[in-house]
From TrEMBL:
GO MF annotation, one: ATP binding
InterPro entries (UniProt xref): AAA+_ATPase, ABC_transporter-like_ATP-bd, ABC_transporter-like_CS, ABC_transpr_LolD-like, MacB-like_ATP-bd, P-loop_NTPase
Domain (ABC transporter) ranges: 12-246
Presence of the UniProt keyword Ribosomal protein in the record: no
Upper lineage: Bacteria, Pseudomonadati, Pseudomonadota, Gammaproteobacteria, Lysobacterales
Superkingdom in the source lineage: Bacteria
The keyword Cytoplasm is assigned to this record: no
Protein's UniProt name: ABC transporter ATP-binding protein
Species assigned in the record: Luteibacter jiangsuensis
Length: 247
């Protein structure tokens, strides 16, 4: 039986999934009979060498890509047989994303970047402004709200991207190489922030990275190689404080 308490609840599940890409007549298998479960309230890190299939796995678990074989469940919803509109709706309502390249709009202020997805969700303008401000405060950027990406450091840009994901209050937060464009200190702030979000909000945070420095900052590390999970271990680092998100 699946555990149901919020601390141990399984929120993402892949069962025997397979995925290959075709390039002309050449078929490249990427995932091969992979199964895993990911729990709420934890930062789970998927590590492994370049090209082993980490981003593909993340894209599948978040509903951005389809599997060829196997089944995918997110928040008890089966994703692999949802039609494209239902899948898009699921992503809009329940998922947040943080990418390596920040994906910010050059012309928008930090606050406007965070407000934008709330408009798509139909949140009234005033409430969107307040929620955006709260999320930016939570990542320590209250004093940077009116600045545009060109005026922010790399670490600050990534924190805006985290605030943007956080303001939707998603149950599932996905991060693809969120620290690889950052120096060591900024990268550490970002990963610790993702860790605290999991603890404070009970969010399922799934992060893929080939950066070995992140390993000690996760609750659980899944090591991938050649489309399979070779190792699944729980880290025993001291708990991250839960009072605030500001480093
Ligand atoms: N859309 C695509 N079309 C064709 N091949 C693809 C596509 N996406 C990924 N691949 C191939 O699948 C394999 C796994 O790619 P993936 O991006 O999942 O690996 P990764 O572990 O995330 O790598 P990295 O750490 O370099 O980002 C690679 O060989 C890649 O070239």
């Amino acid at each position: 039986m699946m555990p149901t308490t919020s601390a141990t609840r399984v929120t993402l599940r892949a069962e025997d999934i397979g995925k290959a890409f075709m390039s002309g007549k050449v078929r490249t298998p990427v995932l091969d009979g992979l199964s895993l479960s990911v729990r709420a309230g934890e930062l789970t890190l998927i590590s492994g060498p370049s090209g082993c299939g980490k981003s593909t796995l993340l894209a599948i678990l978040s509903g951005l890509q389809r599997v060829d074989t196997g089944r995918v469940f997110a928040l008890d919803q089966r994703l692999d047989d949802l039609d494209p509109r239902a899948l898009e709706r699921f992503r809009l309502l329940h998922t947040g994303f943080v990418f390596q390249g920040f994906n910010l709009f050059p012309a928008l202020t930090a606050r406007e970047q965070v407000e934008l997805p709330l408009h798509y969700l139909g949140v009234p303008r005033r409430e969107a402004r307040e929620r955006a401000a709260r999320s930016l405060e939570e990542v320590g950027l209250a004093h940077r709200m009116a600045l545009r990406p060109a005026e922010l450091s790399g670490g600050e840009k990534q924190r805006v991207a985290i605030a943007r994901a956080l303001s939707k209050e998603p149950a599932l937060l996905f991060a693809d190489e969120p620290t690889s464009a950052l120096d060591a200190a900024s990268g550490q702030i970002v990963i610790d922030m993702l860790h605290r979000i999991a603890r404070v909000h009970g969010t399922t945070v799934l992060c893929v990275s080939h950066d070995p420095r992140l390993i000690g900052h996760a609750d659980r590390v899944l090591s991938m190689e050649d489309g399979r999970i070779l190792n699944d271990r729980r880290e025993t680092t001291p708990g991250v404080p839960t009072e605030g998100l500001v480093p």
